[in-house]
Sequence to fold (632 residues):
Amino acid sequence: MPQNYVPIFIFIAIIGVLIPVTLLAAKLVRPDNPHKEKLMPYECGIDPVDSARGRYTVRFYIVAILFVVFDVETIFLFPWAVKFKAFGLFGLFEMLIFLGILIVGYIWIWKKGALEWV
Amino acid sequence: MAQYFTGTDYLLSLPVVLLTLFALGILLIDLMLPKQLKWVNAVTAFAGVLFATAGVWRIQAVYAKGAGGYLGRFAFMQSMLVDRFAIYFFYLFLAGTALAILISVRYLEIENEHHGEFYALMLLSVVGMMCMAAGYDIVLIFIGLELMAISTYVLVGFLRRDRRSNEAALKYLLLGAFSSGIFAYGLSLFYGLTGSTNLRAIGNALQHQMMVRNGHADPVAVLALITTATGLLFKIAAVPFHQWAPDAYEGAPTSITGFMSVAVKAAAWAMLLRILVFGLYPLRSVYLPLIIFVSIATMTGANLAALTQNNLKRLLAYSSIAHVGYMLLGLVALASVDYTQPAFYDGFKGILLYLMVYTFMNLGAFAVITSLRNREVIGDEIDDIAGLYFRAPTEAIMMLIFLLSLAGIPPLAGFYGKYFIFLSLIESKHYVLASLAVLYAVFGLYYYMRIANSMLMREPLEKELLPLSWGMRAALGVTAVATVFIGIFPNWFIEAVNWSLGLTQATPIAGLMK
Fold:
């Protein structure tokens, strides 16, 4: 079925032309006077103090991972909440089991001290 | 949509549910235990395995009893197929896990890393394995694979203060994640080709496409097959994709090395057989040359590499890769004939029987290596086992049994695994492959006997007697008895394998292939 791929090839061709053209057009049209402050990385408006490649504490990663876990929980909760009536009692119990497993994890990380910042 | 799942669905997932509950329970109980009572976690985990075994037994009693019972039942909208094949593997995983728990307790105390998470992760990885063995939907199989793999990555790196363990875990994680990605890519191509995630629907659609194209496979199907097979062969550690195995096996805690080499490997085999034989059977003429090449490469590479190893764990890692090579020959035999031929069943039987005897003999060998770990001695070099006969005579004799069985010497269990594989090869007229396999078995004998030589005929470097914990004694006893028993009375076990394939019935496995 190669003819089904024709639109994809047309897209690729358009991308191949469009991107260089727009970049070139922007380069020609825009005013070009770089100076130090403009080239600085943006850090909430204050002057950056150190190299971005410095080492920082591993706790940030733990917080990030925990955030992802409970974020995914919310993603699962949301469609269930929207369709609460359609799922009925079955959905309620399924969700309670799911939350129960997560709560075990929550108690575990709490007791292990992963939530303490010292 | 009022009725989602029935009682059958819940009964069929009983072992999985029980293991999950016990794993969560261990996590909570562990928080309350003082340091000297951590062995309670091992007891809880062992109880969990026993409860799950009772659950599997219950499923078997209700749905798969006797010769005339059902071959299998679908659950959760055909995403799970608990058939006799799956039940056989459930028992295998649970046996391997129970033995690994027994040999772990003292080892973890010596390493000073005795935490409840160890056992919880072990049980969760068994949950993943069960989803892999019973999965009939590629999504469930993939989730099971990931659950198992992620738990194992953590277990490999469980010795946090040990550099080798950390390195092994990182290597295993990176390579494992990469291969999972390739595997998922192949599965997604199959979904794109056939419009279904169900293995039976995929098989039927591929069969239809082959017929439309006069027996030639779609090039995209070939690409999908190659990527899927890459993922599968990585997980069983066959040769072009084996490099992670020696490193991961060497660095992991020794009891986990044993666990990985039997339970994780059996799960990978269950997944491979499910996908290649149950799902992608129409493409067997395409993957047959691939499997032949990989099996020859695996036997050659692993046997040659094992000859020069001085680290016991690395040596057994290469030996386990070599065993994968032999098992792949069974797959060659069953893929090269129609499923009405005897070679199909003998190849299938050979793989299943091999996995069962391998569980006992290899875990036994790893149990002996685990017991060598002492406060000062790491105990995984070939020098550490020197003169074991003078330090722990019973254990040395048992190790000799395991080594002879691994080499495939007749009165022991390992012989029957190889026997059916070679028989199926001869039945499917692969004479060259059969003679090659026998030749490599001789290589195997050399490196196993090197360990035996060091163990029986060299002076011990440490003079003191080797202390053995009760768990270790139980594990060694069970594995040694099983290794000898399967060798002397193979009939019961061959019957068990026949049962798992439904061979006692008038319409054997063919019923599932349709």
